[in-house]
Amino acid sequence: MSSGSGRKVVVTGATGNVGTSVVRLLAEDPEVGSVVGLARRIPDWAPPKTEWSAVDLASEQAQPAEVFEGADAVVHLAWAFQPTHDPARTWRTNVLGSIRVFEAVAAARVPVLVHASSVGAYSPGPKDRAVDESWPTHGWPDAAYCREKAYLERTLDTFERDHPDVRVVRMRPAFLFKRESASEQRRIFGGRLLPGPAARPDLLPFLPDVPGLRVQALHTEDAAEAYRLAVRTDVRGAFNLAADPPVDAALLGEMFDARPVRLPRTAARSAIAAAWNLRLLPASPHLFDAVLRLPLMDCTRARVDLGWRPERTATEVLEEFWHGLRAGEGAPTEPLRGRKVG
Q1: Residue 29, CA distances (Å) to 48, 201, 225, 245 in order
Q2: How far apart are alpha carbons 89 and 105 in whole angstroms?
Q3: Please, what's the b/e burial string for 42-58 (b: 16 or more CB within 10 A of its CB; e: otherwise)?
Q4: Helix 97-107 and helix 144-162, axial crossing angle in degrees, nearest 10
Q5: Backbone angles phi, psi at 114, to 5 degrees
């Protein structure tokens, strides 16, 4: 532990969707004495008890162990979703960068590592019932995001074997949204030229109902609270994080007053693949394939062992995000900065 001033917690990917929420909650926690945020670009944002360090984890010259010295916990959130057309590049950032973090945690003798895994790490599973954390984590091999998350699950298996003194926690959240992340997520999945104001339910003649398109969502702030609890609570292992109800065409139809119309998987995938191949859409058809196969998650362990419950329903999460999307909402960090179009 740090000296009597409280825990020192280092957060990688501290300026992104999850990172900004985790940093804020940690900075407000009286048991946390200081927060060190790692990011490629230092933001203008200055939360209390927080200092920034410019580190590019994708670089072979990165030296995170120096920053980790004296830390009581490292929360590893850094991740790159793009470019989806260059999986070797995301592998260098996400997988090799994460391995650098794990090695630095061991070198600096940090006692706690909280890692951002994902529902995307799970092997294909059921849509009519929820699975717990024992479900296999081999991902969907065609999707780079799932492949990378699953690979890091195996890497952590080895890390835990070799470093039993480190308390390792793996968070497996559902899709995460908040108002301030709306512009970033529009750019990541819809493209820079998709205008937020076009996100209007009345412009939808119908709502595509694709078989298997049933997923879970969670407010980023609720996920961040689980990360905060994991830093403070003597727990190990994996935790599913999601809010009810599951999101499908029926729920979205009620939200947007739109009529769901059955659309075959092949038709939906062909349209996405065409747009992706023309570089009109950043989200790849391989990720679409994975989403159709993701299992629903049971979050009992997070409730029992962490004392965690989401404060917002999935419906409330999507409504907030939708308003943020139309307004071009963002936050004062480079990844989240609000932009309406372009």
Answers
A1: 11, 39, 11, 30
A2: 23
A3: ebebebebbebeebebb
A4: 20
A5: -110, 115
Helical packing angle, 314-327 and 249-256, nearest 10°: 60
CA dist 23 and 20 (Å) reads 5
Residues 6+ apart with CB under 8 A from 70: 2, 8, 108
pLDDT digits (tens, 9 = 90+) for 211-238: 999 999 999 999 999 999 999 999 999 9
Spatial CA neighbour of 175 closest among 150, 205, 202, 145: 145
What CA–CA distance (Å, rounded) separates 30 from 255?
A: 39
Report residue 45 as tokens.
């944002």
| Positions in the chain whose pLDDT score sits under 70 | 1-4, 192-205, 338-342
Q: Please, where are the H alpha helices in the chain?
A: 17-28, 64-68, 87-91, 97-107, 144-162, 182-185, 220-232, 249-256, 265-277, 285-291, 300-301, 314-327
Q: Is 147 helix (H, G, I), strand (E, B) or coil?
A: helix
